């Protein structure tokens, strides 16, 4: 664990200059309309929500203005806005639009990908299994359950790393269709899978293996060890499905907009299980504007790094372990039981993330604004004085 935390500290020190330089630019990178830039003391009716990894800054000014201009479009079907969004996503990633599926949030992408892989197995008359790290985002298991698909879990190691070698061995030994689900950065631990490990596995995997790479938090990553699965799709025909979301850094969780980037063949299969019209007009218009707002996105990234510095400094001082964070949340030790910790935080009007298997004495906490994290760390220090952690 010591090596993991040292690695996390080195990453934070490396980007320290970036944070300072960005904040020195002041208004140029201001979120302008950020929903919660001014910190307010949390109350019972208005708690500090550090539980769902939502963007503490809300959504961008460009998206807000686009929504306001488009209210008159609500009575009409969203075909034009949806087509434009697909084109804007293609331009953003420099890929062809025919590789993109739009989804009602990235969770719909998980579900449709499972159903597509299951049908592929049926057509090949082969069994199917899903291979996942443990813990990871639970929706993969929820959507597999109605289809009675076997889910094989591989525990993270002592430093929260995904056990790529064991997962790879299982994939190679299985005589059937393997759907490998990798959340990168992982949820709830927020650590990343290195590009070399991931790419070498994808390139050597069996033709009956499909990789489902969930990159809901990819926009927050600044480490050069990370490389998106989208890049391998640009120069390969491997069975790779990449999930992206407008719910996190883009701040549009309530509008439910996500997308898939994959091969033409897998897109054809996935389309069979997607709703024909799953994106609403305001969601499409807001997402088109948000994906073009570099200044807002960069402000959120750098504010997130500052918040990360605040909490890791406190965790170090309290000698509480944590996984190296590459997203807008952190997974840290609490020493006691999770339920007690969550209830005590709720008494302080702070809501924290849910419990995860194998880690009863850890908590996932959203990285809010720097002011919010100062408040959270103050409560942590008070808990230590009261021997609650």
Automatic annotation (TrEMBL):
Q: Tell me what organism the protein belongs to.
A: Helicobacter aurati
Domain Aminotransferase class I/classII large residues, every copy: 49-376
Q: Would the keyword Ribosomal protein be found if you checked this record's keyword annotation?
A: no
Record-linked InterPro entries: Aminotransferase_I/II_large (IPR004839), NHTrfase_class1_PyrdxlP-BS (IPR004838), PyrdxlP-dep_Trfase (IPR015424), PyrdxlP-dep_Trfase_major (IPR015421), PyrdxlP-dep_Trfase_small (IPR015422), TAT_signal (IPR006311)
Say which family it is in.
Belongs to the class-I pyridoxal-phosphate-dependent aminotransferase family.
Sorted keywords for this record are:
Aminotransferase, Membrane, Pyridoxal phosphate, Transferase, Transmembrane, Transmembrane helix
Listed name of the protein: Aminotransferase
Query: Which Pfam families does the record match to this protein?
Result: Aminotran_1_2 (PF00155)
Q: Per its record, what are the GO molecular function terms? A: pyridoxal phosphate binding; transaminase activity
Which PANTHER family does the record associate with it? HISTIDINOL-PHOSPHATE AMINOTRANSFERASE, HISTIDINOL-PHOSPHATE AMINOTRANSFERASE-RELATED
Q: Where are the transmembrane segments?
A: 12-32
Q: Which SUPFAM superfamilies match?
A: PLP-dependent transferases
- CC cofactor: pyridoxal 5'-phosphate
- Fetch the CDD domains from UniProt: AAT_like (cd00609)
In short, the EC number is: 2.6.1.-
């Amino acid at each position: 664990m010591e090596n993991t935390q040292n690695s996390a500290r080195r990453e934070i020190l490396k980007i320290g200059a970036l944070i300072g330089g960005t904040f020195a630019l002041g208004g140029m990178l201001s979120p302008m309309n950020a929903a919660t830039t001014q910190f307010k003391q949390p109350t019972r009716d208005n708690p500090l929500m550090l539980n769902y990894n939502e963007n503490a800054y809300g959504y961008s000014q460009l998206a807000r203005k686009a929504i306001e201009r488009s209210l008159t479009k609500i009575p009409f079907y969203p075909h034009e806005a949806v087509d434009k969004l697909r084109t804007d996503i293609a331009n953003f990633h420099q890929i062809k639009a025919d590789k993109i599926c739009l989804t009602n949030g990235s969770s719909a992408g998980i579900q449709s990908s499972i159903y597509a892989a299951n049908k592929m197995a049926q057509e090949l008359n082969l069994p199917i299994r899903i291979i996942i790290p443990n813990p990871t985002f639970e929706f993969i298991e929820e959507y597999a359950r109605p289809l009675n698909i076997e889910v094989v879990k591989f525990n993270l190691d002592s430093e929260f790393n995904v056990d790529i070698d064991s997962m790879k061995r299982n994939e190679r030994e299985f005589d059937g269709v393997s759907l490998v689900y990798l959340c990168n950065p992982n949820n709830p631990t927020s650590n990343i899978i290195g590009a070399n490990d991931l790419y070498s596995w994808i390139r050597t995997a069996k033709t009956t293996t499909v990789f489902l790479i969930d990159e809901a938090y990819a926009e927050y990553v600044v480490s050069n060890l990370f490389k998106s699965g989208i890049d391998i799709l640009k120069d390969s025909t491997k069975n790779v499905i990449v999930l992206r979301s407008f719910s996190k850094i883009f701040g549009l969780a309530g509008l439910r907009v996500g997308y898939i980037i994959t091969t033409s063949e897998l897109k054809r299969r996935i389309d069979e299980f997607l709703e024909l019209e799953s994106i609403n007009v305001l969601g499409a218009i807001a997402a088109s504007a948000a994906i073009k707002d570099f200044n807002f996105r960069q402000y959120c990234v750098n504010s997130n790094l500052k918040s990360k510095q605040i909490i890791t400094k406190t965790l170090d001082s309290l000698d509480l372990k944590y996984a190296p964070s590459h997203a807008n949340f952190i997974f840290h030790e609490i020493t006691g039981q999770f339920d007690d910790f969550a209830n005590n935080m709720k008494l302080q009007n702070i809501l924290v993330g849910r419990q995860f298997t194998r880690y009863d004495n850890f908590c996932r906490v959203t990285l809010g604004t720097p002011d919010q994290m100062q408040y959270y760390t103050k409560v942590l220090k008070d808990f230590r004085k009261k021997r609650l952690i």
